[in-house]
Every structure is written in C-alpha cells, then in structure tokens.
Amino acid sequence: MQVMRRSSHISLFLRLKKLGNSKAVLHVGCHPDDEEIGLLSYISFKHYGRAVYWSATRGESGQNRVNNYQGHALGVYRTWESLLTREGDGGECLFGPFIDFGFCKNSDEALAKWGRENIIRELVQAIRFIQPQIIISRWEGTPDDGHGQHQAIGQALSDAVEAAASPNIYPEFISQGFLPWNISKFYRSTNKTTYPTGTLNPEMETDNILRVNTGEYSPLIGCTYQEQAWTAYGRHQTQGMTVLPAPGNFYYYLELIKSAVVIQDRETDFFQGLDTGLTGMFSGIGSIPLDVHNTLKKVEELIDKAIEKYTPEEPSSSSLPLLDGLKLLKDLRAHIPEKKLTDLEKQAIIFGLERRIKEFEEVVALCLGLRLESLCTRARVTPGESVWVKNRLWNFSNAPVDNVTFNIHAPDTWGVEKNEGTGITDGLSDFMAVNEVFISNDTELSCPYWLRRPKKGYINEYSEETLKAFLPASLSAECTVTIGSHDITLSAPTMHKKAFPGGHRELPLSVVPPISLHPEFDKKIFLVSGSKQNFTLQVTARCNDEERPADGHLELTGPQEWQIYPASTDVTLPSVNGAATCAFDVIIPPDTSEGRYLLQYNIRCRNRDYGVVLTPVRMGAPGLPYPDNPATCIREELLLTPAQVEIFVINARLREKHRYGYIEGAKEETFAVLQSLGVNIHLIKDTDIAYGNLNEYDTIVVGPNAYLLRGQLAGNAHRLLEYTEQGGTLIVQYHTYGYQGHGFAPYPFSYNRPHDRVTDENALVSMLVPDNPLFLFPNTINQKDFDGWIHDRGLYFFGQWDERYTPLLSSGDAGEPQKQGGLITCKYGRGLYIYIGYSLYRQLPAGVPGAFRLFFNMLSLKP
Questions:
Q1: How confident is the model at residue 421 (pLDDT cuts 50, 70, 90)?
Q2: How many CB atoms are closer than 10 A to CB 158?
C-alpha cells in the first residue's frame, strides 16, 4: 500500500468536517522522525482535528540512505520529507531552531548546547501559535528516552506548558501575535521505541493512562489509521524507516499529566470532557461573551447544513450555507473590539477568528470550483532584473462571480507594474491580470530562512518569528472574488511551471547572485615553518543569469602580512552557467604562528558585492534517475555560504625519514590531510595487503572499520600481526563489534554493549601514564591539546582487555564513570600495537591542533 493521494472530494469533505470543530493537538518531539505517527493520522481522519507535529531540529546529523546531502543540506531534505509525511497522515509540521549535533547520552549536553531557557521559549511560541487544546509529548525527559536530545525536550516541555499561559513570561511575544494560552490536557507517550508493536499491555491499563486504538478501519480513507500512518512514515526515506503497514488493532498508551477538566472515570477518548465545537477555539483564554458564543453556534449549524448538502458531484451546493457562515464570522470579527473584554482576550479571539475565516474562504473556493493560479516566466532571477507574472482565476463550475480584483504581494523594495487589467478571457468565465515585477538591486538573495544568518553555537539565528517548514514564496498573488453580497479572498504562491520527460515541476521564484564563486576547497592545513610557504588557490566564477552575460571584478583578501598574486582579476562570463576558473598564488610568511586564518573571495558585479557559494539542494521526481538533476528536480532550495578558504597553521612535529602506510576503511579524510602536509604516506591496496612487502613501512595506519569493510584485510589480518611482531607499529582506528573475537588484535579484548563512547567533545580527558613516550615525543601533549575538538571524543572504546594491554587515556560523559579503553597499546613481538577509539579522523580534517600533535606522536613511535 502506498501513501494515499486522497481524491479531491475526500480532501474537501475532510476540510468541511474540520471547519466546525476546535480539535487541535500539538505533538512535541525532537527529530523529524520521532513522531507517534499513528496518533497524527487518528486525530486527522477520525476526529477531523488539527494535528501538528513540532520538531526541535531538522535532523541535520541523521543518516542519509538516499543521497550525499549532509549537515544543513540534509536538514533541508528532511524538511521536505516531513512535509510529504504530513501529507500522508493529514497533519502539519513545525520546526524549532535547534541544530541536531549528533547523539548524546544525557540531557546535560543537549541543554548546554541549546540552553534550557531557549528550548522553553521556542515551545511557548509554538503553543501560543497553534493554540492547542491538547499537547502530547513524545518524550518523558528521563534516561529511558535514550538520546540526550530527547531527554532535553521532554524536560523543558512541562515548564513551557506553564509559561505559555502567563502574560508575564515572554511578553514580547504578545506584540508579535503569540498570546498567552492555557491548554486543556497534557499527555505523555509511554512508548520508548521507534517501531512500537501496538499490542495490548496489561501494565498500562490504569486510570491515568489513555489507550488509543489506531487500528480502527476508516471507510473514508479505505484503510486503518495506523496503516495510513505507517505508509506515510516511509516517506522519511533518508532515515531508512522500515515498516510494513498491516490491518489489525494497534494500541498507543498515553499518560495524562495535566487536565483542566475533571475526569471521573478512565478516559476513552482524547477529547473527552472538552468543548470541541467552534466555541472551544477559545478554551485557552477562558470564557467568551454570550453573544460571541451564540454566533459561533449559528456558524456551526450552517456548517452542518453544508455537510448535509455536500455531494462529490455538486460540491457547490454546500457553498451558500458556508458563505452565510463566513459572513457571520467576518461580522463577529469586526465587532470584537467593541466587546467588554481585556485587550489580550480581544487579540486572542481575533487571531482565532481570522484563521478560521481564511479556512472558510479556502473551502468555499473549493466548493465553487474556484482556483487562483499565479505563474511567472522564470524560476530564477538576479537582482535588478524583472519577471512577468500572470495571475488567473479559474472558474471551473461557472460560479456567479460578479467581480475579481488581483493584487501581487512582493518585498517592499520590488516594483509592480500592471500591464493588463482584469477581465473575461478566452470566452471562459475566467479572470486574468498580467504584471511585470521588478526586482530591486539590493534585494535579499534566496536561501532557507533559518540559514540566512550565521548560526549561534547550536542554534540557527533568524529574525523572523516563524516555526514553519519554509517561509511563504517571496512573490505571491491574492484576489478578492465578489459573489453577490459576499467577498472571499484567495491567495497563491507565484510559481514557474515546466514539464520534463517523465514529469513536471512547479518552483517558486528564487533570487540568485549573477555570479557565484566556488573555491576548489574550503580549507587547507599547513604546519608551522621557519620558511615561507607557497600554494595556489583556484576558484570558479559561475554565471547564474539565464538571460544576460555577467562580468565582475574578482579579488582575494587575506591576513595583512600574507602575499596574494594577483590581488584581483576581471572575469567575463556568458549567460546560463558560463564559468571561468581563476588562480591566486598565496605566500604564508615564515614563522606564522599556530591559528586559523581566513582567505575571502569577493566579486563586484552590477554595482553590488557578491562573495557567496551557491549550493542547490534538490529532490528528484520519483522513479527518475539522477535525483539531483536540475532539469528534472521537483523541489529545490539554494544554500548560500561565504566564498572563503580556512587556513589552519598547526604547530606539530613528526619524526623525519619514516615511511607510513594507510589502509582505508570507512570514508574519511585522514589520508588526504596527511598527504597534503607532505607526510611520506602511501595507500596500501588489497593486493599489497595480501602479497606486498609490508615491512617497507615503519608504521601502518588502519582506517575506521577497515577490517569489516575490506575482505582482503580481514582475510589477511595475520599478515598485519606478523608485520607488528617483526618490529612494525600498527595503529588501528575505531572499529565496531565485528572487530572483536576474530584474532584481528594481538591479544583478547571485548567491547561493552552498548559500546563505550564519549559523546561530549568537551569531556575531560586524563593521561593515565603521563611519562609514556606517546605523550612526550616529538610533541609534548598536555590538557590544552584536547581543547577545540568537534562532535565527540570517540566511540567503540575497548570495554575489557587482556592485562598485556596498557590504557593511556581516560574520559567520560557527565555522570558516567571514566572509560579507559579509548587509547590502548601493547608490545607485540618486536613491534607495537595501538588502538585509538578517539575520533582523530574527525579532528584532523577540522584542523584541531592537539589532534595533530597526538596523532603525529603515534606515527613517530618506535617499538
């Protein structure tokens, strides 16, 4: 069974049913795939409620089984996956600003990186924005949640629920429209697994725990709610979600933490005891005036009439009661300022009414067969250009439209010129307007809103107070349609449509730099030297203008004492991906001290500076090859990053005249980094492992998981032990469980389960044997060498080991005992064996100085 693309009449019927109730549930998790997805489907399709899932992060550090996107690019892709998943389960998705930094064991690390107060603030904003009757927490906030990020969100939510109700907490939210809100019920999931079994659990059959059966069958969607949910869950494709939708009972258990209504007996339903009609929209602010209550009841009656009249063949029959209900809501909205209410109560009621009015207008348009379409002639423009926009109201059912007025919404600095007025076209009952839109030269370039500004630690910084997946399109259309005495307002993003073999796409207008800059690499590492060091940087300038050539003045700037030749150069590029590669020679002065230095590119083009790398993130059309093909992608976002090169100068020494071998394992950059520094290191291929002379190397380094990924290495592991026994030094980087018990190491050892790891990159590291040569030559290792590490300390430390091994370092996460199996060594014959679980493979490419000194000492050891 695939995710059901619900027929238009089913979707319309669902929206009709949603109009007349106030059922709104906010489900809170940490990552895009944390959701209890069966509950979202159940709320959407059984209760016709609003089901919203808030994820603290966009899952930037998750796995990716679909493409090569990582980091922020993966976060964009997973946001698309979340939208597709919500399309299947009927819900909505919102996001916090927090960056997924990878696995951590406890909430302390997550709270240190994100800040407890920051989490509470974002959750309060989400609660006040959604105004839910019910909140469901995915996580409890205890070690049983597993991931430390899960624990942090679970802990903060309880405080956020209380803070959301107080006008004295985050008062700045009030001016932004996020008003104090009291929820009616607060539940917490009891599920601790990714794939719950859904079976009955007698231990959970207690008065304070609600049991929900999402295995009920829905004739409306043609399957059970859980089947629909599991099918949607598979849209998290990057995470490799593996579920088989199947019919049958499926139970969730939810602990009731707080309730504003008295529950006499054990609950049988989420909304038991709550006002779920339109009057319930304002349950979070207290009571409402009687006339407001009565008006909303009349609107409910009109909605019921519309549902009674609804037929798939003639949905327009439902439009008249809906238009009458819409008029009542608009009149009520206009008179709220006159009511005897506090200012906060007035704002909250107006906020709820305006949202419901918009929903009414959308449903009325669907019933009448009205569709606003806004098309532009291009998907990409550069600052200073213009684009033609055609706005058209399609009247498929020949509704009695009396008048149509079009408006274009664009940034304030853009210009809009009307070239054709409204009118009936093509002999059809359609209305159309054509405009030319002028993009200002100083307009902001397109980029996902949460990535426009530099991040602050592990939090994305953005000025807009938004929780949405993406901001609305920068260019959109609005039209007011008059039908008799009724006006409805429709809106639509302006899109560029294009067909391609096997599909078509609709992309919003993007503003791109006329020239983007693409450095050959983004970082380079050097060792401190008494002599000057020369190197060449290359950068490709690429034209993004689809209609005009572009020329500019390109320069490279760096530290004042550094020499750059040439300092600048002119480039002229033809349109449509015209490109030119320019080279700059850079000289680092002698005795440049250890540190991070920045070389920055900038190009002056059309009276504006552009110094950015433009990186597209794309989702391809299903079933077509090459999913990142610009000609066949159906979604695209553009990432902008500074066009710069980081130069790391490291003060580290290495024993001279040694020859090193490297056996690659999992993909990482250690070999490339060492080779770029002029280290005499060579790749050892499979044939060399089996038949080559390994004794030509003083030291052999085995990459992460190489024994598990390379059959020749596992089959010839005895040759590496013989090499060590005969006087060589063997350094093995981290390996997973398959490394133990096969005789790959000199003496017995085992990993603990779960394996010993240290996830906090700032955790204290202690030297157990400070006078060991590994800490003394050729670099003296001290505590400062463990500063500035990234991501983690290490993983897959030895858990138990033979007494002939010597542990050299210890480290541990907060609240845990020190783990001593991360750097362990032993003599073997005339040689030396070293196992290193510390993540040097991450630290070296990141230019961490202490990691180089430690690794160089390992390379320099002689048995």
A1: low
A2: 18
The 10s digit of each residue's pLDDT in 501-519 is 999 999 999 999 999 999 9
Residue 415: what pLDDT? 95
The whole-angstrom separation of Cα 51 and Cα 158 is: 20
pLDDT band at 464 (very low <50, low <70, confident <90, very high): low
Chain-centre distance for alpha carbon 320: 43
Instruction: Answer whether residue 427 shows pLDDT above 80.
Output: no
- Residue 475 has a CB neighbour count (10 Å cut-off) of 25
Give dist(CA 188, CA 237) in Å, integer: 27
> Residue 777: what residue type?
F
Amino acid at 175: S
| Interatomic CA distance for residues 30 and 137, integer angstroms | 10
Tokens, residue 175: 């001016």
**Structure-model confidence comparison of residues 693 and 424, the more confident one:** 693
Residues 699, 668: Cα–Cα separation, whole Å:
19
Helix (H) or strand (E) holding 430: strand 430-438
The full DSSP string for 573-619 is: E-TTT-EEEEEEEEEEPTTPPSEEEEEEEEEEETTEEE-EEEEEEEE
Show the tokens assigned to 123. Answer: 């959750």
Q: What angle do CA 76, 77, 83 make, to 5 degrees?
A: 95
Residues 843, 853: Cα–Cα separation, whole Å = 11
Residue 861: CA count within 13 A, CB half-sphere: 28
> For the chain, what's the residue count?
863
Q: What is the pLDDT of residue 689?
A: 96
Rounded to a whole number of angstroms, the distance between the first and last alpha carbons of the chain is 62
User: CA–CA separation, 617 vs 79, rounded Å?
Assistant: 12
pLDDT of residue 2: 40
Q: What are phi and psi of 663, to 5 degrees?
A: -105, 110
Q: Enter the tokens of residue 459.
A: 């939090």
Looking at this protein, which amino acid is placed at residue 690? A
- Weakest mean pLDDT among 172-186, 504-518, 690-704: 172-186
Cβ–Cβ < 8 Å for 372, 407: no
Spatial neighbors of 619 by CB under 8 A, at least 6 apart, are 77, 80, 627, 633, 634, 635, 636
The pLDDT tens digits for 271-291 are 999 999 999 999 998 889 999
Stated pTM of the model: 0.95
Check if the beta carbon of residue 235 is closer than 8 Å to that of residue 84: yes
The whole-number pLDDT of residue 75 equals 98
Q: What is the C-alpha radius of gyration for the chain, rounded to an integer number of angstroms?
A: 31
List the strands of the sheet with 50-55, edge to edge: 92-95, 50-55, 24-29, 134-137, 185-189, 251-259, 209-213
Contact 571, 580 (CB under 8 A): yes
CA dihedral (159, 470, 42, 349) positive or negative: positive
Per DSSP, the three-state class of 672 is helix
> Residue type at 187?
Y
Reduce the secondary structure of 256-319 to three states and give it as a string: EEEECCCCCCCCCCCCCCCCCCHHHHHHHHCCCCHHHHHHHHHHHHHHHHHHHHCCCCCHHHHH
Phi, psi of 411, rounded to the nearest 5 degrees: -55, 150
- Note whether 679 and 654 are within 8 A (CB): yes
316-360, pLDDT tens digit by residue?
999 999 999 999 999 999 999 999 899 999 999 999 999 999 999
**Closest Cα partner for 472 from 422, 549, 409?**
409
